Queue: 2 jobs
Job 1
Amino acid sequence: MKYKILSLCFILFITGWILAQTGPSFEKYFIDKTIRLDYFHTGTHNQETYSYDAIFQEPTWAGSKINLIDTLNLGKYLFKVLDVKTNQMIYSRGFSSIFGEWQTTDEARRGIYRTFSESIRFPWPKERVKVTIGTRDRYNIFHDTWDFVIDPDEPNIRRVNYFSDARVTKLVHHGDSYKKVDLVILPDGYTQEEMKKFREDAHRLLKVLFDTSPFKERKKDFNVWAVEVPSKESGIDNPQKGEYVDNILSCSFNAFGSDRYALTWDNKTVRKAAARAPYDHLYILFNESKYGGGGIFNLYATSYVDGQWSGYVFVHEFGHHFAGLGDEYYTSDVAYTDFYPSGVEPWEPNVTTFVDKNHIKWQYLMEPETPVPTSWGKDEYDEHQKEYRIQRRKLSKNDAPQAKIDSLSTANARWVHDFLHSQEYMGKVGVFEGSGYASQGLYRPSIDCIMFSRNAGEFDPVCRSAIENVINFYTQ
């Protein structure tokens, strides 16, 4: 019996090893460096074109050497790398972009053209490769919209170490980068004299992240690096107040006309700074007390640092960037007019249009007796939030002190917490109407979650599962 058990274990080991080798071999196709392709993405609401910009070599490869083909099916776009000789796909990743969000704004719908700098990164190929970028259609099928052939021996590839004098600090370190999730944190609006504050802010916000499940249980799967690139002035642009500063990464409030939405269009500077450390994901901390942030899947996340909600924003925006989680709230003002077109099932794992119990993407986490759709006192909630928004706009219009705005927000958060926790299906996975910036027609999996309200304190089971999937993909 002992020998039979040993034989069975050996067979299972060999079988697992063979299955692990069925994907592309890193050693066959790549070397331990990173290639970055920069390009321009131009268009309107229903048009898009791509144009080549430049290619850069980055020092090391930080990603998995096993999971080279994307199996997560997240993001509005998918890029694939094909070996030219065999036409075999040897690498792929899903992602989203600023351009993709801009296409849903009124400006884009009016036919105004805009151009954004974008980048894709993958291991350095040994031979010529063809890169293709595909966009989802309304049925979530990817269609290739651009391709470009790269010769790794091309002399025009830039091999420059930018920001060579930048200090790089290990904030969290648990092992080899290709077996961990590597996160780089960049400062914006911190002067050289404020770099100590940047490190302290990063440590404080990381503690909030790693006190939140499932990051709490999976902390050892992460490395976190800080790259210190100082700005000449403190803070970031605040266009609605006419305030502009000389900040190194050019982050600004009022992205797409949404006052609290903070992004940067300066993709190239961000990438040059981030390349000082190995990374899979990017986070920009901006030195402000004004509430704001942003997060785009597989691009970057941003967060303000000085305020009572900075910990929440840091975790919430990382949910967008890291796991492709959608916003579950719907009562706040946003710039989008067509973010989730009617009749299109969102690719985000925590937002759905389906109310047929047999087709709900998170059905495996639901109890059989939970009704679909699931009731939750929506009308009363909507009425209270309407009044809250009126009061908040009035305070903002009258330039009320930030402390007074924060006090109103705190009182609202307290009411939301008490109200949601009084509902029958609080804590259950269901199909709750109101999500993805829409009061009707879109549904979320739980009454409350970090992706829904500022007082949730935790991700719901569906979001936790999605985060775990991404962690596993990068580390197993």
Note: The chain is about 25% helix and 25% strand.
Job 2
Amino acid sequence: MFTELKKLIAKRSLTITVAVLDDEQIRVNVVPHARLADSKVNEQIKYSNKSEVASVPEEAIKALTTPISITGTAEEIDAKFPAILCEYVESHVELQETLDRASSEIAEAVKAIDERNKSKGNAKTVKKEEKSKSEEPKPKADETLPLWWTDKAAAAPGTKPQPAPTAVVDTASPSSQTLLTQSSEVTQQ
């Protein structure tokens, strides 16, 4: 019996109970215990990676602690129990290996995502540096165009400044009191 259980107890502890149900019937229970490492498989998925990395379903983790219960006469249990245990242990070990493989794949996926995000961050930094290098430096105040080139109200050097536009009330239609602006050329006439 313990030869069959050897692979299972190598990974986790278990409890075996034997109870008499009546004069002829015996029940044998084998209950694997949960390990702390079982619940940590999904903890390696960071909050920022939850949309990109699938977690292991809780049902799969709980399946590692699924017990087996055999009921029968002492002779039946003696005859069939080793074969039933072999099958149980084999399926349990396969499930454990699958969980371990999933855990390592999750760790690799999280690592790859972190590296990708890090390289994206580095690429953005490089692009910002290239952009700032390619931008022309801002000219100093004395290197800019003279104000009279860009603002018509400013006078060119050696000329008289033009007066600013003025506002006049149109007296022809007193009801509307329309405000008209006239340029300095019109007011000089």
Note: Residues 173-189 have pLDDT under 50 and may be disordered.
